[in-house]
Amino acid sequence: MRFSATHKSWPALLVALVALLTLVVPISSAAAAEGDVEDTVDLNLSVAGATGTDSTSVPVLPGLVPVSLRTKLEGGSGSLSPTGNYTLEAGGNTAIVDSREAADITIPLNEASVVDGAIPVTLTARFLDDLGCADVDISEGVVARVNEAIITYSGAPENPTNPADFFSAAVRTITLVTADDQVSFTSPAVLQAAASLATEFPRAQISTGQGADAGPYARIVEFIPDAGPVQVTVDAVGATPRMVLRGDAASLVPAAAALGSADLALATDPQSSALSQTGAAGTALSLRWSDVGGQAPVLEGLGTVSQAVTLAQTRFGGPISELEVKVSGTYIPVPTNAGATVSLLLNDRLVASERLGDGYTYTLQGTVTPEDMTRNTQVKVELDSAPIGGDCRAAVWVPRVDIDANASTFTAKPGQTLPPGFERFPQVLRGELPVAFAKGPNPADLSNAVDLVASVSRLEVNAPAVSVVSVEEFDSSSQSALLINAGPQESTSLGAPLPFDPKRSPVTSDPSFSVTVERPFAAFEAFENGGRDLLMLGAFPADDVPLAASLQTDLATAVAPAPDGWFGLTGDVMFIGDTPRTGPDGTVEATFLSVNTPPVGEAVQVESEDSGVQTWLWVASLLVLLLAVVVLVLWLLSRGAKRNGDSAEQVDAPGGPGQG
Question: Which of 502, 513, 537, 599 yields a CA-CA distance of 20 to 30 A from 615?
Fold first, then answer.
C-alpha cells in the first residue's frame, strides 16, 4: 500500500497511528474493542521481586475469536522505588507497565492468540540496576497483581452437537437435572457425574436444579430413569446445550463416570448408547517429574528463574508421611568470572543448593518430613545467576539448567501425619467415596451432597468412584465416607467432634468447653472414627426439617465455589448458627474450629499396596521367633530335669552321698 504525503492524507494517517498505539501500550481508560461477546474472567496473577513471573490461561469456547483483553495492573513498587516494569503477555502480544504506577491495560488478540483451546497469559516483573541489569537485590515484598480481565470476542459460540464436543474447559456452569420423585433412583449417577466432571473441569460450578437457560457457557445434563442400557442424546436447540442420559440405575452410574473422561471424544454421534467407564486409574509410590510436569523443563536467563510442580498426596493413592525428592540434570558450564546456583525448595523451604562451575551435571535431594507434611507439596527448582563482571550488557554467557524429567523422582512413604480434619481429604478416600443419607435421599439433600462431592473431587487427580449406601452400610464400613443430614443420634454414635445437641460441648483436649444454647445450628465436620475418616453434614434440631435443610444448604453452598471451595476449609468443624453472617457476595461466613487435634508429625502407618504382604511377613517372623523361644525353654527345662534326675540317682546309689 502506498501513501502520498498530502495535507489530506496526513490526518487520516495520524488517526490510524494513534488507534494502533492505544492497543499496544497501557491506557488509563480503554474502551472495549469491537466484538460481539464480552466475557469477564479471573486471572489471579501476582509477581514479586525483580524477575518474578506467573502464568495462567483462559479457555475459549469453540466458534469465538478473541479480539482484545482489558485489565488493570495493581500494586507495584511505588513512586519512590527503583525503576522497573511489568510485562503482561496475552496470546503472544504484550503490554509494558512502569513499576511505579498502576495502569489500565489493553492487549490486542486474534485467532493466533488461542493455543490448544486457550489464551496463555503471563505476568513478568523486571527491575533493573544502574547498569541496566536485573536488580537481584530488589525486595521480594514488591508485589504486583492482575486480577479480573474483560476479554472481547468476535463470532458466535458453536453449540455442541454430540457428547464429544459437549464439554470444554471454557464451560462455567454444569447443572445436573433429575425429577424430584426420582432422586432415590438417580442419585448415584448424579453424584458420580458431579465427581467426574469436577475432577476434569475444576473451574466449572456444578449444581443440581431444573436447568434454567444460562447461555453458551452453561451445560445441562439430565438423568431420566428407564429400562435397559443407557441412551445418550445431545440437544442444542435451547439457549443452553442439554445432554440427556436415559437408562436403568446400573447403566447410569458408569455413564456418569464417563462424562469426565478424555475418551468422551470418541462419542461423535448426537445419539449413542452404552456409554460407560469402569475401573480405576493405577497409583504408585514413586513418580517422575515427567509424570506430573513438563517433559523437558528448562531454567534459562540471568537473575532468578524457576520451575515448579505441585504434588498432591492423592497422586500416591492415599495419605503419605514422607516424600523424598531427587532432581538431577545438566547445565551450561559457568565462566570463572560469573556466578550461578541451582537450588531445591520444598514448600518454599530451601533444602539443597549447588554452586555451578565448569561441570555439566548436578543433583539435588531433599525430604519432606512428617512434621512438615501437608496435603500438597510444591517442589521448586530455582536458578540464581549473575552476569560476567556484574554487567549484563557485556554478557556472552546465558545461564541454562535442564531438568532431567525422567531421572528426577518423587518417592513417598505411606502414613498419616495430619490431624483429623478437612486437610486429610481427598487422599484418605483412596479413590472411593460412599455417600449416605441419614433421612433418605431427597432433592435438598442431593443438592447439598453434589456441592460437597464436587468440591472435594476438584482436588483429586482421578475422579473417585462414588456410591450411595444405606446408613447401615455406612455404619459397618471401614471406608472413609460422607453422611448427609445427620442429627443428634448419628453425631453421638459416630463420636463427632461437635455433637448435634443443645449442650454444645466439643470433644477437645484441656481446657474443656461446654455451653447449652437452645437455638438451632448446623455443622460440617471432618473427623476420625474407628480408624476411618468421615465427613458429616447435619443440624440441630433435626426434627425441624425446613430449618435444618436451610442451614445445611447454607454450609454446602459456602463450600461449593469452584475451583477452590475446599481449600477454604480449616480445622475439623465448620459451624453456623440460625442467623448466619453473610459476606459481600452473599455467601455464608461460617466459623471454623479445631476441636479434635492430636499431636501432629507422629506418622501413623496406613495401608499401602504391599502392606498386607508386609503384615503377614511380620506375623510369620513373630511366630517363628515365639516358636524358637518355646523350643529353647522346653530344651532348657528338659536339661534341668535330666540334671536333677542324675543328682537324685547319685544320692540314692549305694555308697553315694547321704548313705550312712
Answer: 599
Predicted confidence (pLDDT) per residue in 16-31, tens digit: 333 333 333 333 333 3
Total-model pTM = 0.81
Cβ(151)–Cβ(66) below 8 Å = yes
Instruction: Bin 568: left if φ > 0, else alpha if -120 < ψ < 50, else beta.
Output: alpha
The torsion of the CA quartet 580, 581, 586, 592, rounded to 10 degrees, works out to -80
Q: Are β-strands 481-486 and 465-469 bridged in parallel, bridged antiparallel, or unpaired?
A: unpaired
How many other CB atoms sit within 10 Å of the CB of residue 90?
Answer: 27
Q: Is 192 helix (H, G, I), strand (E, B) or coil?
A: helix
Laid out side by side, the sheet with 84-90 consists of 53-59, 118-127, 84-90, 93-98
Distance CA 108, CA 146 (A): 17
Is 546 strand, coil or helix?
A: helix
HEC assignment per residue over 58-70: EECCCCEEEEEEE
Q: What's the CA gap between 215 and 236, in Å, rounded?
A: 11
Cα–Cα distance between 566 and 425 in angstroms, integer? 9
Three-class DSSP category at 527: strand
Cβ atoms of 536 and 486 closer than 8 Å? yes
Bond prior to 563 in cis (omega within 30° of 0): yes
Question: What is the average pLDDT across 203-215?
Answer: 79
3-state secondary structure 101-112: CCEEEEEECCHH
CA–CA distance, 341 with 44 (Å, rounded to integer): 30
Of the ranges 1-5, 239-243, 382-386, 550-554, the best mean pLDDT one: 550-554
Letter for the amino acid at 418?
Answer: L
In the structure grid, which three cell numbers stand for residue 136, read together?
537481584
Q: Residue for cell digits 495492573?
A: 73
Collect all residues with Cβ–Cβ distance below 8 Å to 59 and sequence separation of at least 6. Answer: 117, 118, 168, 169, 170, 203
d(CA 536, CA 306): 41
In whole angstroms, what is the distance from residue 47 CA to residue 54 CA? 6
